[in-house]
Amino acid sequence: MEGIHKFLKAAAEELHRQHQRVELFAEVTLKIRRSLHLKEILQTAVTEVQRIFQADRVLIYQIFTDGTGMPISEAVLPNYDPILGVTFPEEVFPEDYRQRYAAGRVQAIDDVRAADAGLAECLIAFMDEWSVKAKLVVPILQNFKSHADGNSERLWGLLIAHQCQSPRQWTEFESELMQQLADQIGIALSQAELLENLEELVAERTAKLRQANKHLQQEINVRRKAEAALRRSEEQLRLIANGLPVLIAYVDKQQRYCFNNEAYQTWLGLSPAEISGCHLKKVHGKDDYQYIRQYVEAALSGKTVTYERDIPLQDGCIHTLSITYIPHLVERGDLRAVRGFFALTSDISDRKAIERMKDEFISVVSHELRTPLTSIHSSLKILATGKLGDFSSKGQRMLHIADEQTDRLVRLVNNVLDLQRIQSGKVKMNKQACNAMDLIVEAVQTMQAMAQEQGVKLLLKPVNFVVWADRDYIVQTLTNLLSNAIKFSPPESLVWLLATQQRPQYITFEVKDCGQGIPHNRLETIFERFQQVDSSDSRKKGGTGLGLAICRQIVEGHGGEIWAESRLDEGSTFYFTLPELLE
Ligand code: ADP
Questions:
Q1: How far is Cα 320 from Cα 308, in angstroms, rounded to an integer?
Q2: Are residues 546 and 416 in contact, defined by beta-carbon separation less than 8 angstroms?
Q3: Nearest C-alpha to atom 14 of ligand 1 is from which residue?
Q4: pLDDT value at position 147?
Q5: Cβ 484 under 6 angstroms from ligand 1
Q6: How far is CA 353 from the centre of its chain?
Q7: How far is the CA of 549 from the centre of ligand 1 (A)?
Q8: Is the CB of 488 under 6 A from ligand 1?
Q9: CA 321/CA 291 separation, integer angstroms
Q10: Terminal-to-terminal C-alpha distance of the chain
Q11: Dihedral sign from CA coordinates of 532, 533, 537, 542
Q12: Which of the listed residues 5, 417, 489, 519 has the most CB atoms within 10 Å of its CB?
């Protein structure tokens, strides 16, 4: 009975101890976990163990990789010397001890002097120095990640309890509690290391972010500056565009206005905001669009076009506007694509008025000149017959010069009047079906005498085309070209007059000579008024510089084109086209 009683008592005491142990352990663990700072954790551990065990000294001893070490936390009763901060030489802690602790060995020595303690003499002396009578040592193993085998454990240090007053018998409970605490410390160490790594990582990332931020800020500054410069330059461009007395617009490929300057408002009463994004048809109306469409399409096909129009502006007056469309071309590899076109419109009413006045003046003067010139011309002709008396040979020479120069003057006046009439549109071309061969033959017959005089042979080739033309004007064009060809050809040379079909619906007339030729840079300008390659031509060859300008007016009035090709000292060929009349 008594045996059972004893057993129950012992069991109850054991249960109580276990309960106490669990509670204590939980309490210490909680305290350790409350802190993230390793120093605080270690200090809590030693203080709590000292309190629970009523030990005289509890310390945590850290072991360095070179085998030396030092106590880094300590809880010691006031009557004993603190060991904290003392560096221990390696020999105090030999390699085989370290290896055993690393394997998890717990050393509980009840009496350091007892024979079964197995301590070396030097160690006993060392213990005496710190008045250690009994000690309980558990290793603190730290978990760490190794590249070779994942998770490993390493001996980080020792948790040591000293009894200094007297030897002490360490209980299993104390030993287990110490081990469990050492495990908690090990975990705390790993966590602290992780935290440190994390902090390092955070610091590194923060530094990188700061750097990136700095770069970003720099980039933003550069962009801001570029944007400000762009805004300034845009502002300047807008000022220029709005300050110019012309309409400036940009129209895209879909024929929508993308930009208009403010002149649109003052000239046409159309505000740029109203127009922006609108189709040309909507802005200009159906009829107007129908007219400008051909030019718009030409610009969008990559050609620069210029045309004139009379349009009523906001001031209520009709103005003559010159409109130019310049295609916006972009290179795409070898291809050139049209993105849209720039439209520039300027008011040329003043210039037109001056031109009209000038033309009227020329035409009036020419008319007024013609009557007296005709009478001078006929008087000279009568004098030249000798019916009114004979002249000395010198007098006859003077008469001849006067006759020649009057002839030239009559030609000039006639040419000026011709050009004037055709240009002003006052003459109506009387177009009808004409046999090309008839026109050629008539022109050749007219110029035959002049050709013979110059010793030039005229050649023609029979053709059978019918053109839609004003017979007289085309014969005038052909004789003009033939006259030039003869004038600028050397004696005994040939002049050809041909008609061919080089492109559908058009007949090309050609007047070809083997004369002095025309410099390449003059091939265009000679078609302008009073343009001669050599200014002495008018004197030497009796020209007026108006013949080709008249030819161009006539040909263009027929919907044809005129141009010249030439090689210096080899000859020139003049071409013009007329619409073919198909049966
Ligand atoms: P012009 O009355 O002076 O001949 P045109 O207008 O007919 O006036 O010709 C202008 C100029 O073009 C001439 O002065 C001459 O310099 C040049 N020209 C025209 N035809 C020829 C040609 N067949 N050969 C060389 N030069 C020519």
A1: 7
A2: yes
A3: 532
A4: 60
A5: yes
A6: 46
A7: 10
A8: yes
A9: 14
A10: 149
A11: negative
A12: 489
Helix axes 393-424, 547-557, angle to 10 degrees: 30
Contact present, 338 and 328 (Cβ < 8 Å):
yes
pLDDT tens digits along 401-438: 898 888 888 888 888 888 888 887 777 889 999 999 99
Q: Which residue type sits at 522?
A: R
The answer for residues whose C-beta is within 8 angstroms of residue 206's C-beta and 6 or more apart is: none
d(CA 60, CA 38): 12
What is the rounded distance in angstroms from the CA atom of residue 548 to the CA atom of residue 526? 7
In the chain, the amino acid numbered 364 is: V
**Contact by Cβ (8 Å): 518, 526:** yes
The tokens describing 458, both together, are: 């005229």
Tens digits of residue pLDDT in 204-251: 999 999 999 999 999 999 999 999 999 999 999 889 988 888 999 999
Ligand 1 in contact with 366 (CB < 6 A)?
no
The pLDDT tens digits for 270-305 are 888 888 999 999 998 999 999 999 999 999 999 999
Q: What is residue 15's predicted lDDT score, i.e. its pLDDT?
A: 82
> CA torsion sign, 521 to 527 to 531 to 532?
positive
